[in-house]
């Protein structure tokens, strides 16, 4: 016989009670506290939906202004939220049926889903970033958002984006410009590249050109400013982007009204100098160097992950290379593209050693170009820095250089095929980031920092004479030197010279290129009869009244640009047909009255 003591009886009673009561206690709890759990469920659901709406709104805004794509983490979160909300709706539907016997089961689901919704809501507030940026704007989220914020705020009329050269200011504004083109916020958007020396009359002409208006060279600066002011007033709300401003200047002198809340207009300028932003009275937006992580992300996106996967020992060398790019996107992209597909550690170490000499950063990309591409790239340095260069002209330059690079002309195929190869050459240079695309699809430019490197690389035996964009009032004395007789290419674009005296006229029989375009005061040219090797002559936007003497002697001339010469009085009939080597189309656009010959295609 088993004797049960009082202590044993007490223990057994608790065990039996627990075994009987516990299975029923939780369901009973869900049943009793059903209304409480339902209220907590509704609050959690409302908070999660609000968080989801905020995340989606922020995501759309960032994608709209910054581009790229949503991060995988955000995509997973949104997908999970949608699934949980669907489950919550199903439970809410069950609760609405009001079946008394199901209250405990529904209450249990209320508690479980409420917990999930609270966890998701908390996680939604912890994202570092909602989007993965396009590679060209890595690290510039904040800057783009700040610029867009100021473009919306009525109190801010002028924004100054500043930072060191190569930091990505123009790229950022290109991105902002492209995104705004998809909207209707501004009636008109105008992009003007200013560069080192602000020329009020040129700025006026550029602005008028974007509005399809012409300004007379005979008008004073004040008269031109009045016309521009009236044109802009009629335009309505507008955005003017002044890229690469080196010195402050008066908007009033140009004819640009000061932006205000009343006119709804905005001006954004980019500059290397903070003092320019302050002098122009702009709201400051600083573009900082990329962080180490951002720089590495941008570098890998360009050089390719396969470099590391093929040889993990490359990681330390690559890390040092990225560090030597100093967080500058232009340098990072340029070096990464140059090293793409390179798996030899010795070549990487060599690149690292050269990067330690900072001036060699851009030359690494130049060295990776093919020989004909190098020649084409150096041709582009004949233009002023940050100047819009028509793609077609660069391709023609490339074609001009073909005979020098090839063993014989027989290697040149049909002209269309040759132009196709020239276009491929241009694309390779663009891919190297040594030339940049612009808002105009058929226009490229060479940044001032790249042009400086290019000019230093021109071989001494090539005899280039480049004074483009220097705003000279007189020709430099170098053209009087004996060495001038060996010049191959002369570029005096964008200067204020009014005439070229005979004693300073280029006399080199080796001269193949003479660029005098946009010398808007140039009225007199000496005879060109001695330039028997001349292939390219550009007199666009000068003030010459007649074509230079000796033109009939230029038997090798294949490119002639006489466009937009308002003072040109006469082109001798029969001259152009006699220049049988002319191949460039649409190079002459002159008035058809007063007996002036019109030429469209050669």
From TrEMBL:
Keywords: ATP-binding, Coiled coil, Nucleotide-binding, Plant defense. It holds the Pfam family NB-ARC. One of its GO terms (molecular function) is ATP binding. Residues 144-305 form the NB-ARC domain. InterPro entries: Apaf_helical, LRR_dom_sf, NB-ARC, P-loop_NTPase, Plant_NBS-LRR. GO terms for biological process: defense response. Residues 38-65 form a coiled coil. Belongs to the disease resistance NB-LRR family. PANTHER family: AND NB-ARC DOMAINS-CONTAINING DISEASE RESISTANCE PROTEIN, PUTATIVE-RELATED (PTHR33463:SF212), NB-ARC DOMAIN-CONTAINING PROTEIN-RELATED (PTHR33463). This is NB-ARC domain-containing protein.
């Amino acid at each position: 016989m088993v004797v049960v003591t009082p202590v044993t009886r007490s223990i057994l009673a608790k065990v039996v009670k627990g075994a009987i009561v516990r299975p029923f206690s939780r369901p009973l709890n869900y049943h009793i506290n059903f209304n409480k759990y339902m209220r907590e469920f509704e609050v959690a659901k409302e908070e999660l939906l609000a968080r989801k709406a905020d995340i989606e709104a922020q995501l759309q805004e960032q994608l709209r202004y910054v581009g790229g794509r949503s991060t995988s983490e955000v995509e997973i979160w949104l997908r999970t939220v949608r699934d949980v909300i669907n489950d919550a709706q199903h439970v809410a539907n069950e609760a609405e049926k009001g079946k008394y016997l199901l209250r405990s089961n529904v209450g249990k689901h209320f508690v479980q889903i409420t917990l999930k919704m609270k966890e998701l809501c908390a996680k939604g507030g912890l994202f570092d970033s909602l989007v993965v940026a396009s590679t060209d704007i890595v690290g510039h989220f904040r800057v783009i958002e700040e610029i867009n914020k100021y473009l919306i705020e009525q109190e801010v009329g002028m924004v100054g984006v500043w930072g060191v050269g190569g930091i990505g200011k123009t790229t950022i504004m290109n991105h902002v410009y492209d995104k705004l083109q998809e909207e209707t916020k501004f009636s008109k958007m105008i992009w003007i590249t200013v560069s080192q020396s602000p020329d009020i009359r040129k700025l006026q002409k550029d602005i008028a050109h974007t509005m399809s208006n012409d300004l007379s060279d005979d008008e004073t600066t004040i008269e031109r400013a009045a016309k521009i002011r009236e044109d802009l007033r009629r335009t309505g709300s507008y955005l003017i982007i002044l890229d690469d401003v080196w010195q402050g200047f008066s908007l009033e002198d140009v004819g640009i009204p000061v932006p205000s809340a009343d006119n709804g207009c905005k001006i954004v300028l980019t500059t290397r100098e903070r003092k320019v932003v302050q002098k122009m009275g702009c709201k400051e937006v600083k573009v900082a160097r990329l962080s180490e992580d951002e720089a590495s992300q941008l570098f890998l996106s360009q050089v390719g992950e396969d470099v590391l996967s093929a040889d993990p020992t490359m990681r330390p060398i690559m890390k040092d290379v990225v560090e030597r790019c100093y967080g500058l996107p232009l340098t990072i992209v340029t070096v990464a593209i140059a090293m793409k597909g390179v798996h030899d550690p010795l070549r990487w170490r060599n690149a690292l050693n050269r990067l330690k000499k900072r001036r060699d950063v851009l030359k690494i990309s130049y060295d990776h170009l093919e020989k004909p591409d190098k020649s084409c790239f150096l041709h582009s340095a004949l233009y002023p820095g940050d100047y819009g260069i028509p793609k077609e002209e660069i391709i023609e330059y490339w074609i001009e250089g073909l005979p020098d690079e090839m063993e014989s002309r027989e290697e040149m195929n049909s002209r269309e095929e040759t132009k196709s190869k020239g276009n491929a050459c241009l694309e390779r240079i663009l891919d190297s980031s040594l030339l940049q695309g612009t808002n105009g699809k058929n226009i490229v430019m060479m940044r001032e920092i790249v042009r400086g490197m290019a000019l230093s690389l021109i071989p001494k035996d090539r005899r280039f004479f480049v004074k483009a964009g220097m705003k000279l009032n007189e020709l430099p004395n170098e053209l009087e030197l004996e060495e001038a007789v060996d010049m191959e290419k002369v570029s005096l674009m964008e200067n204020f010279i009014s005439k070229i005296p005979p004693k300073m006229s280029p006399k080199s029989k080796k001269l193949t290129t003479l660029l005098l375009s946009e010398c808007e005061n140039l009225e007199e040219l000496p005879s060109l009869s001695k330039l028997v090797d001349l292939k390219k002559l550009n007199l666009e936007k000068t003030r010459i009244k007649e074509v230079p003497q000796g033109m009939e002697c230029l038997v090798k001339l294949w490119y002639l640009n006489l466009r937009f010469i308002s003072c040109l009085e006469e082109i001798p009939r029969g001259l152009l047909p006699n220049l049988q080597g002319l191949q460039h189309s649409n190079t002459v656009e002159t008035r058809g009255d007063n007996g002036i010959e019109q030429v469209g295609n050669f």
